[in-house]
Amino acid sequence: MTAKIGLEDLKTAVKTAKPMDSSVSAEAGAADAPRVAKIDAQGRSYATGKRKNAIARVWIKPGMGKILVNGKSGADYFARPVLQMIIGQPFTAANRAAQYDVWCTVSGGGLSGQAGAVRHGISQALTFYEPDLRPTLKQGGFLTRDSRIVERKKYGQAKARRRFQFSKR
């Protein structure tokens, strides 16, 4: 999220700016700056996760490890063990199992896409709550949005690539 800078803010910044030392670059200073946790007034961190056509809005806060998805428990909503494993992967990678409560709303897509969206949202929210976990989750590939989506159907064809059967006569 980038903040909008007004014209007056820009003018005051230019007036008060000091000349930069040529040996120190702006990129090096930004990379060394510590990340700050993004926690709201209720002690939660929020993130949005996406996969295929599914979108998950995820809130995490310290707790006993309860997961609520659309008002149901995580085990009831994602009945297949593979999907339960997928949404628990960020916690196991960060060694934070049963330390955070998760509350999320998910819509669109099927159950597999929704589980991936919840996993992506949990990973993002964990990095907002504990910025030190970012390298661990990034190495596991949990912060990267899986951008693969269904290819659109083309006109004059049966499916996206499947053509109608050719008839010679």
Structural description of this entry:
Helix content is 36%, strand content 17%. It is an alpha+beta fold and 169 residues long. Helix 4 (81-93) runs parallel beside helix 5 (111-129). The radius of gyration is 22 Å and the shape is globular.
Concise summary:
With 169 residues, the chain is α+β, with helices and mostly antiparallel strands. Helices cover 36% and strands 17% of the residues.
How far the N terminus sits from the C terminus, by CA atoms, comes to 61 Å
Shape: globular
Could you name the ranges where pLDDT drops below 50 across 5 or more consecutive residues?
20-26
What's the mean pLDDT score?
85
C-alpha Rg (nearest Å): 22 Å
Number of H/I helices:
6
Please give the number of β-strands: 5
Largest sheet: 5 strands, mixed
Notable traits:
alpha+beta; single chain; 169 residues
Any chance you could write out the topology, listing elements then pairs?
Blueprint: H1 7-16, H2 26-32, E1 45-51, E2 54-62, E3 67-69, E4 72-73, H3 74-77, H4 81-93, E5 100-107, H5 111-129, H6 134-140
Parallel strand pairs: 3-5
Antiparallel strand pairs: 1-2, 2-5, 3-4
Helix pairs in contact: 4-5
